[in-house]
């Protein structure tokens, strides 16, 4: 599991070490320099003679970059420094100069010329001490460098120290200019913005440098790996039968969208529940032709999926199964049309109800609940949007997208990236809803007994996102049914991770 901690938690973790005089900055800058050497070598360059640009801001982040520059200069690199603040760390600057680094003329032309000369930039303009948007003069400098980076015929390697300058370190937001990185060398632990969208998209490869920090608390944001998923999966044993393995009931599909029933059933069956029930008479024939193992009609279940392929105007029939699940405290997935119910009637939900909107649906839901939020707002700061929605509704929220961002009213936010953007295809969300329902069903009795979720529904949803991403992994076009077909192998790969 990748565990990301906020800047305040990083500073807390640093405190005892700094009091003991542990040389954190030395460790940090050495990690940056080592990453720089590796990046140069992996592209066939020698350190000696390589042209490096150190972008040094006024904080400790700038000092890290300067010491890294000093190290590279001592190894024979030709290092130039852009001094982006009047208050650059004096000792670090002196060390860099002594090692042979040269200061660049700080006018626009001087900076651009130096940027063009250098094949590797070290971004020490701002670290975890900065809240975006950047203010002047840093804002213009970052804009200039990012434009140059994009326009350069040979794209420079950009090594971000701790985080790319300009990102929302703690919330993953992108507001204002940022300098996109090839590699981010982050100190001690990832920060939320390094693993959560949209900021995670400008971080390149994230490397965590062990500088001796120790974190014991709950992370702010986490990303599950295959082995975390394996820990959550209930593998059947000799005493299991279909009812102990979990029954999932689907109220999905309609005359308008019959295929959604096939896709949700396929997603559910792929996860291996004991039984899938379908309560959608108008599409039962279609589903049974493809999946004869499905049982039709209402009945007992340990989890319920409602709304995929059901128009928002036809949600009346979803209320009976929803009421029953709420009464019996079984987990529920509300997808697509069923989200309509949360706008007006079902306004206070337990966290065992999981809502699965895409960005547009989440914006609509939040707006209907009195928050003036657009799709663009959701996309610019997904962590904030899911947290807000979880607080307002009480439910667990899965914001579907290139990365799924998941939050309950408490516990960490999970950010689960896609393995391939070919996944963005109609019906992929229906497959997800069915898959999630089946996973919740296998935990349904436990969740019902606990009465509340205590973070577990979010964790299970994150596992569903991992499996879905793995099942949709592809180097070329895929259909939603290919994701269905990929689920059993994705689960097997988690179990063997
Ligand atoms: N604290 C420590 O002891 C350690 C910190 N380390 C490094 O130190 C960094 C944090 O250092 P700092 O706390 O000095 O913070 P930063 O280095 O992130 O920089 C803060 C600087 O940015 C300016 N600034 C703040 N908000 C701004 C905005 N919106 N627009 C433009 N400028 C803005 C401030 O005036 C200040 O000069 C970490 O990211 C990491 O790289 C490492 O050296 C390891 C040890
Ligand atoms: N850019 C992207 N890259 C990868 N996956 C994506 C991207 N955008 C969306 N997705 C995924 O595609 C699916 C789309 O779901 P949804 O919007 O509900 O569509 P539908 O209702 O047609 O199934 C979700 O699983 C989501 O995580
Ligand atoms: K930085």
From TrEMBL:
Its EC number is 4.2.1.136, 5.1.99.6. InterPro entries: CARKD, Nnr, Ribokinase-like, YjeF_N_dom, YjeF_N_dom_sf. Binds 1 potassium ion per subunit. Keywords: ATP-binding, Isomerase, Lyase, Metal-binding, Multifunctional enzyme, NAD, NADP, Nucleotide-binding, Potassium. It catalyses: (6S)-NADHX + ADP = AMP + phosphate + NADH + H(+); (6R)-NADHX = (6S)-NADHX; (6S)-NADPHX + ADP = AMP + phosphate + NADPH + H(+); (6R)-NADPHX = (6S)-NADPHX. One of its GO terms (biological process) is nicotinamide nucleotide metabolic process. AMP binds at residue 429. Its cofactor is Mg(2+); K(+). Catalyzes the epimerization of the S- and R-forms of NAD(P)HX, a damaged form of NAD(P)H that is a result of enzymatic or heat-dependent hydration. This is a prerequisite for the S-specific NAD(P)H-hydrate dehydratase to allow the repair of both epimers of NAD(P)HX. Residues 10-219 form the YjeF N-terminal domain. SUPFAM superfamilies: Ribokinase-like, YjeF N-terminal domain-like. One of its GO terms (molecular function) is ATP binding. (6S)-NADPHX binds at residues 60-64, 127-133, 162, 260, 309, 358, 430. Residues 225-494 form the YjeF C-terminal domain. The gene is nnrD. This is Bifunctional NAD(P)H-hydrate repair enzyme. K(+) binds at residues 61, 123, 165. NCBIfam families: yjeF_nterm (TIGR00197). It holds the Pfam family YjeF_N.
